[in-house]
Each structure stands twice: as C-alpha cells, then as structure tokens.
Amino acid sequence: MMSQTNPHESAKELINEAADKVKLEPWIRKSLLNTHRELHVTFPVEMDDGSIKIFNGYRVQHNHMRGPFKGGIRYHWDVSLDEIRALATWMTIKCAVVNIPLGGGKGGVICNPKDMSKKELEMMTRGFVRRIYPIIGPQIDIPAPDVYTNAEVMGWIVDEYAKCIDKRGGKKYLGVVTGKPLDMGGSEGREEATAKGGMFVIKEVIKEKYVVGLDSLKNKKVVVQGFGNAGSIFARLAYEEGAKIIAVSDSKGAVINKNGLDIPKLIEHKERTMSVANCEGCSNTTNEDILCLECDILVPAALENAITMENADMIKAKVVLELANGPVSAKADKVLYKKGITVIPDVLANAGGVTASYFEWDQNLKNEHWTKKEVNKKLEKVMNENSKLVIETAKKHKVSTRIGAYILAIQRISEKAKNELDTNHYICLTDYL
Ligand code: NAD
Q1: How close are the terminal C-alpha atoms of the chain, in Å?
Q2: Residues with Cβ < 8 Å from 54, sequence gap 6 or more?
C-alpha cells in the first residue's frame, strides 16, 4: 500500500525500471535512488498576535551531476520529508529530460499560508532563508516558487540571502533564486512558462500523431484539476486554441459545463471569490468526479497522488497531461498504460517552468534581459526537441512515455557523470559542497 502513495517510493520505482532497461551502472543508480544532502530546520517566527511559533522546513538536494541543484520551495500543511525527496528527485530527471545544465533539489515549509498574514509569511520566509543560506547560492542550489509561493516570496529570499552572505548588505545575488519579480531580475514569460511548456508538448504529441483520435485541440474536451499558476494559465491557453474546457477544480470546489466553460470569466470569478465554485453559467461538482469524466485531455495541475489505485480504473481520458508533479502514482500509471491511456509525464509536461527558470538564471549571470518573444521562442525549441526525443525513446524501448522520459534522462545523467568521473571533477565538486 505504501508504495502506491509514498511519492518518493514512486519516484524510485520509476528510476529502477528505466535503469533496468538501459543496464545503468550500479553506482549511478544508487546515487539516483538516494539524495545528496537533506537539511531539516526549525526556526521561530513572531506572529501578528505577539506569540512565537516554531516552523519546520526542509531543503533536499538530490543530485548535481549535471549542474547546480534546482527546485522550488513549497508552503503547505502536508509538506513531508518524503514528499520533498520525491520532488527533488523529479527535478533531477526533469532537468535532464529538457537537457538543461542543472540538477535536482526541492524545499518546503510546513505551514498554512492561507491562514497567515503577509507579514507573517515574510517573517517565516526570512527565518527559513537564515537556516538554509549556507547550502544555497547561484552556483550551488537555486530555489524557485512552487505551490503557495510566488515572485514576492522569491524577492524576500533574494533580500534575506544578501543580508546573510554580506552582513553589511548592498550586494545583490540575483541568481540565488528564479521566479523573481521582473524589477528584481525576473524573466519575461516565467509566470506562464509551465503552462506554455505543457501546451508545446501536447502540440508536439498531436504533430507526431502519437495518440489515436487526437488530431488537434479544436473542440477537444479538456478537464483541469487545480486552478493556480499552472492549471488556470493552461486552461486559458487551451481555451484560446479552441478546446472545450468542460470542468475545472481547486481546493475549495469544482465546476462543470459540458458545453464548455467561459475560462476568462472563471479566472475573473476566482480572483474575486478565491475559488472556482459557484461561478455563474456552470454547475458545482466535486474534484473526485471531474477526474473520472469522459474527455480527451485530463490535466492534473494540483498536487501529488490525484490518480492512485483507488480511481485509476475509472479514468476515461485519452491523454493525461501531468502539469502537477507526481499526480499519478507509479502503480496507477501501469493501470492507465494497460487501459491504453497515454500519460505525458510531469518530468516533460511541466518542464517549461524550470526551463524558463534556467533562462532567468542565465540572464542574471550574463547581466542580460531577454524579451518575452525571445524567451518563448527558446522555450518552444527546447520543449519541441525534447518531446520528440521522449516519444522516440518510448517507441524504441516499447515502454510508456514516462519510462521513455526516464530512460532519456538517466542516459544523459550517466554520460555526464562518467565524463566528470574521468576528470575527477565530480568527486571534487561533491567534496567541496
Ligand atoms: P498554485 O499554488 O498556483 O496552484 C495550486 C492549485 O491547486 C490551486 O488552485 C489550489 O486551489 C489547487 N488545489 C490544491 N489542492 C487541491 C485539490 N485537492 N483538488 C483540486 N485542486 C487543488 O500552484 P502551481 O504553481 O500551479 O503548482 C501546481 C502543481 O504544478 C504542483 O504540483 C507544482 O509542483 C507543479 N508545478 C508548478 C510549476 C510552476 O511553475 N508553477 C512548475 C512545475 C510544476
């Protein structure tokens, strides 16, 4: 039962499956099944009522064979070490799938950001940075936003990191995080890059005629679980392409209209009321029900384990596009594969986010600012080329798209690791960090 829902066990199962296919060297397999470093911190924060609360947070660095650790910071009440380990592992695989020179890391703080004031969130962020700053940095480990963190939070991190590194302040280390506000060294196009990346991937799937019956987006039925950064922007882009978004959900409710939802209106309703529920022109339903609707594309864009052995048999989509990280458990993935449902895995489907983060970091290091058009063009190239390679790898090895993506990633990691080992660089870097 454990291996169905423990996301780190799911991640390890997939690495083992892909490693078996390509007979991966044991030491590289072992490195990928473990994490490089795990930091668990506790820190006090003065709350608005004057009380002092102790928070727990984690930063897990999974692997840096291909470059500095890279991965978001999540604020959520369900954050656990196993979840952060899984997310860090997926980042290593994801960066290799899209062939960017970065490794995998992830962080999180156990908290309920919905019940905290902005001042409390800022104090908590600064407290967390003071604990983790010795192991992050522009050339070491570069955090980014994730669930319930955003550009503003990244701005606080840049500021606090500078204070920690240089007590007199003054110097800015913009490359320490990505997903920053534009006026603090953020990149054009970063906010919508995850959804846009997912859109480039699905278009490539259509172009390659990889899924029977999916020949365009026009009038195709789409269901989106989660209506935040990834989900709501994807819904808008799909709506603009002529797809029919028949149902969406968020943490507070779900809505359905079999003739297609008015997405711009729904986005405006969510901004005003903080939920998609009760929007005019659609009916309320449940998050569980929308996952099992008959549709062309199901887009889980919320949290892990949306599809497990409990509901895998009831999924009726042609394609599952994983904008969330780990929304389908390893065992449920096998059920979907047997049913003939194509799952476009998270490590490809949502990799537009980290790719744009890499562009932001690159711009910061080179002291450049690229236009939105330039960013989107580069993003399209990366997503198209690597989507094609994932599909080819899956076909060549006669495996699911997910295992195809893992095979492509671990081959790239293994190649780099062996080269670095030859020059002794990898060992030196590990020792230094
Ligand atoms: P977000 O905080 O902007 O949005 C999360 C959304 O999920 C919210 O609408 C929330 O209400 C909803 N949600 C939470 N629990 C739910 C539930 N049980 N049922 C239905 N909806 C629920 O977060 P985001 O940045 O959009 O991230 C969503 C997922 O995408 C996460 O898995 C994240 O790791 C992944 N992801 C995001 C990015 C990015 O750039 N934002 C990049 C890669 C992966």
Answers
A1: 37
A2: 42, 43, 44, 45
- Determine the residue of 251, 269, 299, 307 to mutate for testing ligand 1's pocket, defined as the one with the most ligand atoms within 8 A of the Cβ atom: 251
| Three-state DSSP class for residue 39 | strand
Q: Do 160 and 130 form a contact (C-beta atoms < 8 A)?
A: yes
User: 330 pLDDT band (50/70/90 cuts)?
Assistant: confident
- Encoded tokens for 268: 């405006």
Catalytic residue from among 94, 106, 270, 416: 106
Q: Where are the alpha helices (DSSP H) in 241-292?
A: 263-273, 287-291
DSSP H helical ranges for 98-181: 118-132, 151-165
| Nearest atom, ligand 1, residue 325 CA | 32
Q: Which atom of ligand 1 is nearest to the CA of 326?
A: 32
Residue identified by tokens 């476009």 is 344
Residue 94 among the catalytic residues: no
Residue 256 β-bridge partners: 247, 283
Nearest residue (by CA) to ligand 1, atom 16, is 251
Better-scored residue on pLDDT, 148 or 426: 148
- DSSP bridge partners of 316: 294
Angle made by CA atoms 371, 375, 381, in degrees to the nearest 5: 145
